[in-house]
Design goal:
Blueprint lengths: L1 H9 L1 H34 L5 H50 L2 H4 L2 H24 L1 H21 L1 H48 L1 H6 L3 H36 L1 H16 L5 H19 L1 H16 L5
Length: 312
């Protein structure tokens, strides 16, 4: 995690700006939903709809579009800056190590194989995650937390009704996330072993040729390739199983929310506008929890990759 802390520290201005824009975008969306609820309640009660209410709705609609645009733009820009920091930091560390290394260490095939493996695997995957998933994951967590707090202020009872099933889902998420983490780590370890054999063979091929060790090296590589293939297939199968079950469970909170909310509206204990707010915003909480297993697995892969990369 120390590498991730370095990346955030070196780009802290843009990271803070991205977090602030995410907060503003979510707050704008929530206030907009409150005014929509007010409009629905006015229509239900048959009261006059003021032109100022329509104007406010239009302004918040524009605000949502603008804040979402800048939120996505700044987040992607920050992600690319962090990825660039990672790439340049690794290259600086590589040059620094090469300058200070002894001649025997510089000629080591193991060091060359390790460097090539990091460049083609850990660095490439970490760079891809930073550019595509890092702020998506953090933004998802922030949005889910804000929506949950906002709905608690609207109606505690209804919030508890649709969050209670998430306790069971959270237990499942923790279990599946732990399982997926172990599977992903095992797959990565097997892939690294396979790459080390390949790069070592390329670097030391003249020596291997002299002692006729080609068949031995190929047999060793094929064994590691077969083992990695088994692990990769198992990883894909487990992702499909866990995520499919998550999709089924994700509908349970919405069903309970609709039944309980409809009952409260019919009993005149809650307005139709408030139910509309819950039906539109609860997805921000449930989807955050439902997507946690896959996001946690990808984040675990990302942190494991960073732990094998040294930057200056």
């Amino acid at each position: 995690m120390h590498v991730l802390k370095k990346l955030i520290k070196r780009n802290k201005l843009f990271v803070i700006l991205s977090v602030c824009l995410t907060l503003i975008a979510n707050l704008s969306q929530m206030i907009y939903m409150l005014y929509i609820a007010k409009l629905i309640n006015n229509i239900e009660a048959g009261t006059t709809i003021e032109s100022s209410l329509i104007l406010i709705l239009c302004l918040f609609l524009i605000s949502n579009a603008v804040t979402n645009f800048f939120n996505h733009y700044i987040s992607r820009y920050t992600s690319e800056k962090m990825a660039h920091t990672l790439r340049t930091g690794y290259m600086r560390n590589l040059l620094h190590t090469s300058i200070e290394a002894t001649p025997s260490a510089m000629d080591s095939g193991t060091d060359a194989a390790h460097t090539m493996s990091v460049l083609q695997n850990e660095l490439a995957q970490a760079n891809s995650y930073l550019g595509n998933n890092f702020f998506e994951f953090s933004g998802m967590l922030l949005t889910g937390t804000l929506v949950l707090v906002f709905l608690l202020f609207q109606n505690v009872l209804l919030t508890m009704v649709f969050t209670l099933p998430t306790v069971l889902i959270l237990i499942y998420v923790m279990y599946s996330g732990r399982k997926l983490t172990g599977i992903v780590s095992a797959t990565m370890d097997e892939k690294e072993k396979m790459n080390r054999i390949a790069f070592g063979l390329i670097h030391s091929f003249p020596i291997v040729k002299i002692f006729s060790g080609e068949k031995f090296c190929m047999k060793s590589y094929e064994e590691k390739l077969s083992t990695w293939g088994v692990h990769a297939t198992h990883e894909g199968r487990m992702h499909a199983i866990y995520n499919s079950l998550s999709g089924v469970l994700s509908k349970l909170p919405l069903l309970l929310l609709f039944l309980c909310g409809g009952f409260l509206v019919l009993r005149n204990k809650m307005s139709l506008g408030t139910l509309f707010v819950f039906l539109n915003l609860q997805n921000g909480v449930t989807q955050t929890i439902m997507n946690l297993p896959s996001h946690m697995a990808r984040f675990k892969v990302f942190t494991v990759n960073l732990s094998r990369i040294s930057i200056l």
